[in-house]
Amino acid sequence: MSSAQATPEISRYRSRYLKLKSVLHDRATGYPAVAVLLDQLRSQLDGRRALGVLHVAIENLSLVESLYGWQVLDRVLCKVAFEIRESCGEELPKETLLAINAVAGDSFAAFVIERTDGREVDAAFMRANADALRGRLEAALGDDEFTGLGPQLKVQVGHALLSRNPFYRFERRVYAALNEAAAWETEQRHRRKRNLTHEIQRIIQDAKIKTVFQPVVDLRTHAVLGYEALSRGPADTPLERPQAMFRASAEAGISTDLDRSCREAALQALREIALPGKVFLNALAHGLADDEAQQVELLETLQQVALAPNDLVLEFSEREALQDPEDFADCLGRLKSRGFGIALDDIGTGYASQPVMEQVRPDYLKLDISLVRGIEENLIKQELMSSLVRISARIGASVIAEGVETQLEAQTLIDAGAQFGQGYLFAAPALPGTIVVSPRPGQEH
User: Fold this and answer.
1) Is the fold of 18-191 the same as that of 207-422?
2) In what order do the strands lie in the sheet with 51-59?
3) Cα separation of 52 and 112, whole Å?
C-alpha cells in the first residue's frame, strides 16, 4: 500500500478511535466511564475476597448548571476529579482505579484494589478512606472560587465492598456495589442531619449563642463607623460557625427561630457593654419583615440599649433576592420605613441585580470577600469594584469591603472609591471591651 493510500486509511482509523474514545471517556475530566474498567476489575478481583468501592457525588450540581451554566458545572466537576486523582497515594492507596459514572456524568467511582501494605480491604478501611476523601473534597470546594455559588456544594462519599457472586453477572455486581455505596452515604447524611437538627434546636432553646463584634472602619483613617455582630455556636463543635448553624436550621425548618436568637444574643451583649457607632446585624428578610411583633420587640430592645432605629443597620444577603427580587425589595422597604438602616450583603457574588439595588436603595453595599481577596492583582475584580462604586453613588449608598486582610487590598479599594472596610487588617472579631483597631499606616506610634 502506497503512502498516499495509507493516509486516508490512517485518518479513518483515527476518526473511529476518537469516536470510540468520546463515548468511553469524559472529555471534561478525562476520566473513563465505569464500563471501561470492568475487565480490569474482574482481573484484580481474582485471588481476592473483595475490592473497595467509593462513590463520590456532589449535591446540588443540577442547580449549579441551571443557575450558572454548564461551564461552571464542568469547572466544579474538574476540580473534584483533580482532587480525587491527587488523593491517590495520599488519602487513597496509589493504585486506586478511578472512573466517572458515565460520559458527561456527574458522579465518580474509585475502586481500591488493596491497602498500601498489600493487605486486603475491609469495611472499616473503606470507611476511613471515605471520611478522608470527603474531608479533602470539602476543603477543596470551600475556597473562594466555589463558596460564592448559591446552592451549597455538599460532598457525598459512600463506600461498599465488591465481591464475586456466581449467581450474578460480574457487571451487575459492579454497579450494585456502586449503588450500595451511594445508598450508604445517603443514610449517613440523613443521620447527620437528624443529629444536627437536634443540636440546633438545643442551641436555640438553651440560648447557647455567643456574639463577637468586628469593627467597620474608614479605609483611609481607620476611624470606626460601627461594629458588626457576628454569631457563634458552641465552641469546638460542628455548629460553631454561623454558616453551619444556619444550614442546619434551614434543613430543620427553623431558620427564623435561629435568626431571632442570634439577634437577641447580640443585643444582650450590647446591654452589658455598649459600643460606639452603628451596629450591623445580620437578619433574614422574611423572618423580620413579615413579623410585626418581632419588629416591635426589636424597637423596644433598642430603647433599652440606648440605640435609635437608625443606629441599627440590618444586613440582608443579596442571595435572598434570588427567588423573588420584587418581594425581597418589598420586605426591605417595609423595614426601612421603620427607620432601620439597611445593608445589602454578599455583593459581588452575582445574585442581586442592579434594579434590586436601585429599588431597595440600601444605606450600605457590603462587598463579598470573594471580590476583595486578591483584588490588587485582578483587573476584572477592579473593574467590577469600580462599577459597584458608581452604582452606590447613584443610589446614595456607601460601600463596605469585607474580608480586607492586606494593605495592598485596602489601597486598591481606596483607589477604586470604596469608603469603608472590615477585616483582619483592622481588627479580628472579639468580645466587646477587647477590640483593638490597628492604626493606619504611618500612625503606629
Assistant:
1) no
2) 97-100, 107-112, 51-59, 154-162
3) 5
pLDDT at residue 428 greater than cutoff 80: yes
Nine-digit cell string for 21: 474514545
Quick: pLDDT tens for 308-361. Answer: 899 999 999 887 876 678 888 888 888 898 899 999 998 876 655 677 788 889
pLDDT tens figures, 3-58:
555 576 666 656 564 555 556 889 899 999 999 999 999 999 998 999 999 999 99
One-letter identity of residue 275: L
Helix axis angle for 255-272 and 242-252, nearest 10°, is 140
Q: Is residue 41 within a helix (H) or strand (E), and if so which, with residue range?
A: helix 38-45
Q: Class assignment of domain 207-422? A: alpha beta
Q: How do residues 296-311 score in pLDDT, each as one tens digit?
A: 888 888 888 888 899 9
The residue written with cell numbers 463577637 in the block is 212
All structural domains of the chain with their residue ranges: 18-191, 207-422
Pick the CATH number of 18-191 from 3.30.70.270, 3.60.15.10, 3.20.20.70, 3.40.50.2300: 3.30.70.270
Alpha helices in 208-324 (DSSP H): 242-252, 255-272, 285-289, 292-304
What distance lies between CA 187 and its chain's CA centroid? 23
CA distance 436 to 159: 49
Give strand ranges (E) for 187-223. 210-218
- pLDDT tens-digit series, residues 362-379: 999 999 888 999 999 999
